[in-house]
Specification:
This protein folds into two domains: 75 residues, no CATH class; 79 residues, no CATH class. The termini are far apart. The longest helix has 28 residues. The chain contains six helices and four strands. A two-stranded antiparallel sheet has the order 1-2. The chain has a two-stranded antiparallel sheet with strand order 3-4. It is α+β, with helices and mostly antiparallel strands and 159 residues long.
């Protein structure tokens, strides 16, 4: 079985133009597996292998759905200034979120002036640690430059 997810957006973005992204999800596979996937609720499957394949299929679709929702969420970043404008209280050192003892869920403070900022960043903060690398990564390029004219041999030695 093959699942293909294609997201297409115009590039470079027009400053005044629409910012639509076209998304296509295509599934291809043999009749048997497609039938089992679509009819699994009506007829119980006795094969442990087929049950495992169907479970993996639905987990993959759920992952694609979550990815799609996060893409839509992140795409809204530049369209609303409150998403990228740091609140004054946070600039002065007041934390935006706190995690109570014994809980793993972040809570925002009671200040309602930065509610929209906190609402945008909470899903990013609550992201599963295993998927951070997929969403938030950076590349480091190292260049060694060479002088156009040779430097004196003993430039950095005393005397």
């Amino acid at each position: 079985m093959r699942i293909e997810y294609v997201a297409v957006a115009p590039w470079p973005l027009e400053p005044e133009g629409p910012r639509g992204t076209r998304v296509e999800v295509t599934m291809e596979g043999g009749y048997d597996i497609l039938h089992d996937v679509s009819c699994a609720l009506r007829q119980p499957i006795r094969s442990l292998y087929r049950t495992h394949v169907i479970r993996r299929f639905w987990n993959t679709l759920q992952s694609i759905n979550q990815t799609d929702q996060m893409l839509a969420h992140l795409q809204a970043f530049s369209s609303v200034p409150e998403h990228f404008t740091l609140p004054d209280s946070t600039k002065s050192g007041v934390p935006l979120f706190y995690i109570p003892p014994g809980s793993g869920t972040p809570h925002s403070g009671s200040d309602s002036s930065h509610a929209q900022f906190a609402a945008y960043w909470k899903p990013v903060l609550s992201m599963d640690a295993n998927s951070w690398q997929r969403w938030l990564h950076m590349h480091r390029l190292v260049l060694i430059l060479e002088h156009d004219t040779p430097l004196p041999k003993h430039l950095h030695t005393p005397g």
